[in-house]
C-alpha cells in the first residue's frame, strides 16, 4: 500500500475486530507469526513492515514521527474502524505517538519495551548501539541513538486505554517503563518477571495470553 510517500507492506490474517501489529528496529512483521496465528482466530490482524524494514520501502533518514504517519495512513486508507494497536520496542514508540497525535483512530494501544528518549535505554545497550553505528553507519541504529523525544505532558494527554509492558530484564530501564505508565492516566502496567526485551514477544505464545484479556476488556467497554 502506498502511503505517506512510501510503499508499506502488510499481511492481513483473519476476520473480526481489527488490530495492527508494529515490530521493532531491524525486524519485520514476521516476528509476530505466533501472535498472529492466535489473534486471527477472532480478529482481523494487520501485521505491517515499518518503512525501511522488511518489504516496505523508504530511503533517507528514518524517524518515529514518519513511521507514526505511515501507520496512521495505513489505518485510514484501509478504513479500519478504531483498531487496537500493539507495538514492540520501536513499534511501541510509534503506538505511543499515534495515541498522542491521533487518538480518534484507535480503540486502545499496548506497548512493550518502549522508551521516551534514548536515555531510557540501559547504558550498556547504548554503548553497543554506538559501537554498531561506528562500524555500520546504520540509519536504523542512528534513530535509536537520537530519538524519540516524547514529553511527559504528551503522555498525560493520552485519552485512549493503554497497556504498558516490559520484562524485568528489559533493555529499557524499569524506572523508565514505570515512568511511562505513571504519566498515562488510567494505564495498566505489567513488568514481567524474568523476561528480557524480546523473550515474551518474538515468536512467543506468552504475548497472546497477555494482550487478549486487555483487548477483550476494550471490546466490552466499547459494546462491540
Supply the key terms:
single chain; 224 residues; 7-stranded mixed sheet; two-stranded antiparallel sheet; 9 strands; globular
Largest sheet features: 7 strands, mixed
| Cα Rg | 16 Å
Low-confidence stretches: none
Oligomer: single chain
Strand order of the largest sheet: 3-5-4-6-7-8-9
The proportion of residues forming helix, as a percent range, comes to 25-40%
The chain-level structural class is: alpha/beta
Structure, described:
- With 224 residues, the protein is an alpha/beta fold.
- 39% of the residues lie in helices and 21% in strands.
- The protein is built from eight helices and nine strands.
- It has helices spanning 33-39, 64-77, 90-101, 123-136, 139-146, 152-156, 174-183, 206-222; strands at residues 2-3, 6-7, 10-13, 17-22, 43-48, 84-88, 108-112, 162-169, 188-196.
- The strands form two sheets. A seven-stranded mixed sheet has the order 3-5-4-6-7-8-9, sandwiched between helices. Strands 1-2 form a two-stranded antiparallel ribbon.
- Helix 2 packs across helix 3 (90-101).
- The longest helix is centred in the C-terminal third of the chain and has 17 residues, at 206-222.
- The chain is globular, with a radius of gyration of 16 Å.
- The relative contact order is 0.15.
Write the layout of secondary structure elements.
Elements (H helix, E strand, L loop, with lengths): L1 E2 L2 E2 L2 E4 L3 E6 L10 H7 L3 E6 L15 H14 L6 E5 L1 H12 L6 E5 L10 H14 L2 H8 L5 H5 L5 E8 L4 H10 L4 E9 L9 H17 L2
Parallel strand pairs: 4-5, 4-6, 6-7, 7-8, 8-9
Antiparallel strand pairs: 1-2, 3-5
